[in-house]
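in:
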């Protein structure tokens, strides 16, 4: 057994699903034996490569992979993390989340699907949502002005290109471009 060379970056793996058993075989390969892990954590994007991002994530695949590998390596979810109160599952990260899979509210208990519980999910990863709402993980459903103000204060002190500052401001404040809410 050769010790892993010390590196500033931990070895990780991010993957999308395959429509067959290849995903599980691949994870077993990249994990390596229990005594000599090849990766420090695993990020799962629970869609196939050809599945559009407008399609919901595969909860069945996520449940299978977290229950199979979650006790051996920390697993992060990548995909559909836009609001913490709207995730279609529960986990130790947010046990009180509620979600209904029906588009029209129905007061009968049959209208809501029981939430899948993912006890071995170790974290959430987001890209597009954090661009629009950098305060997402603080529990905000929309970008608060305090986050924009903080960003602009940092931008004023750092030599950031104006295009980058403007791009981030617009992404954090899509309502500022709306004709109904524009201040001018």
């Amino acid at each position: 057994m050769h010790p892993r060379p010390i590196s500033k970056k931990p070895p990780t793996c991010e993957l999308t699903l395959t429509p067959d058993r290849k995903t599980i075989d691949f994870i077993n390969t990249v994990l390596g034996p229990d005594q000599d892990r090849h990766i420090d954590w695993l990020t799962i994007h629970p869609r196939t490569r050809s599945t559009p991002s407008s399609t919901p994530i595969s909860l069945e695949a996520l449940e299978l992979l977290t229950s199979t590998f979650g006790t051996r390596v920390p697993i992060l979810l990548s995909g559909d993390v836009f609001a913490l109160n709207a995730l279609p599952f529960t986990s130790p990260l947010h046990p009180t989340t509620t979600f209904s899979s029906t588009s029209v509210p129905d007061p009968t208990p049959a209208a809501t699907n029981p939430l899948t519980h993912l006890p071995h999910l170790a974290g959430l990863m987001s890209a597009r949502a954090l661009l629009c709402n950098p305060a997402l993980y603080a529990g905000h459903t929309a970008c608060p002005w305090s986050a924009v103000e903080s960003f602009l204060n940092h931008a004023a002190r750092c030599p950031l290109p104006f295009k980058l500052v403007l791009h981030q401001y617009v992404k954090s404040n899509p309502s500022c471009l709306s004709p109904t809410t524009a201040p001018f």
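note: Residues 145-157 form the longest helix (13 residues).
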